[in-house]
Amino acid sequence: NAGVMQNPRHLVRRRGQEARLRCSPMKGHSHVYWYRQLPEEGLKFMVYLQKENIIDESGMPKERFSAEFPKEGPSILRIQQVVRGDSAAYFCASSPRPQETQYFGPGTRLLVL
Amino acid sequence: LAKTTQPISMDSYEGQEVNITCSHNNIATNDYITWYQQFPSQGPRFIIQGYKTKVTNEVASLFIPADRKSSTLSLPRVSLSDTAVYYCLVAPGGDSSYKLIFGSGTRLLVRP
Fold first, then answer.
1. Nearest-CA distance A25 → chain B (Å)
2. SS3 (DSSP) at A85
3. pLDDT tens readout for residues B64-99
4. Looking at residues B1-13, what average pLDDT do you find?
5. pLDDT band at A2 (very low <50, low <70, confident <90, very high)
6. Exposed / middle / buried, residue B30 (Cβ in 10 Å: 0-12, 13-18, 19+)
């Protein structure tokens, strides 16, 4: 049973470019969560999605950031016009139900030059 | 939301038992206490969760006193591979229980 998968594991972008981060939840999990981790800090909640629905995006910046979890395919976190401050590790987690244990993927490390 | 406080770092030696204590004075009645482990360049990994008294699994034990204002993660006979950051989380409870709140964690260094 494969765990949560994220790709790419590392992503380098120049300022102003777009970054697309993908997350495939564990089999049987329909709840996906995105977190961001800055160096030497804990993870910060960004957004919670179910299939085709955004449930809570309270932790996601209002501008340049968007997330989706289509009926088919992985969840995608999209960052438009990246800036240096977007450099961080982005983790995706999934669970079978919202109150149950979240299982994390290996993360995508975004570096903005 | 219940804030957690835990030591920034701890040192230990192989074979010793390690106890990491977390304070959560404002824990709510329906909050659970969860511990995650994170290795460098990896995502957090669930270790254990509890509500009160003691919980034990194949990896660790979690001790929670009656007032629930603190909890202690106990790792028996640590090895070098237990070097990691350990996070204590208190679930907000209710409809927002999915919104995990990570503090800075405790960096555990296990020496040979």
1. 13
2. helix
3. 999 999 999 999 999 999 999 999 998 765 666 788
4. 89
5. confident
6. exposed
B→A contacts (Cβ < 8 Å), by residue, are 34, 41-46, 49, 87, 96-105
Task: For chain A, list residues whose CB is within 8 angstroms of any CB belonging to chain B.
Answer: 4, 31, 33, 35, 40-45, 48, 56, 58-59, 91, 93, 95, 98-99, 101-107, 109
Contacts of residue A82, Cβ cutoff 8 Å, sequence gap at least 6: A13, A14, A15, A16, A17, A18, A19, A64, A110, A112
Verify whether the Cβ–Cβ distance B98 to A4 is below 8 Å.
Answer: no
Query: Three-state secondary structure along chain B?
Result: CCCCECCCEEEEECCCCEEEEEECCCCCCCCCEEEEEECCCCCCEEEEEECCEEEECCCCEEEECCCCCEEEEEECCCCHHHCEEEEEEECCCHHHCCCCCCCCCEEEEEEC
- DSSP structure class, residue A102: P
Q: Which two tokens stand for residue B76?
A: 């028996």
**Cross-chain Cβ contact B102/A43 below 8 Å:** yes
In this prediction, residue A1 carries a pLDDT of 54
Q: How far is CA A107 from CA A52, A70, A103, B111, in A?
A: 22, 20, 12, 27
**SS3 category, A86:** helix
Give per-residue pLDDT as tens, A13-69.
999 999 999 999 999 999 999 999 998 888 999 999 998 899 999 999 999 999 999
Please state whether A40 falls in left (phi above 0), alpha (psi between -120 and 50) or beta: left
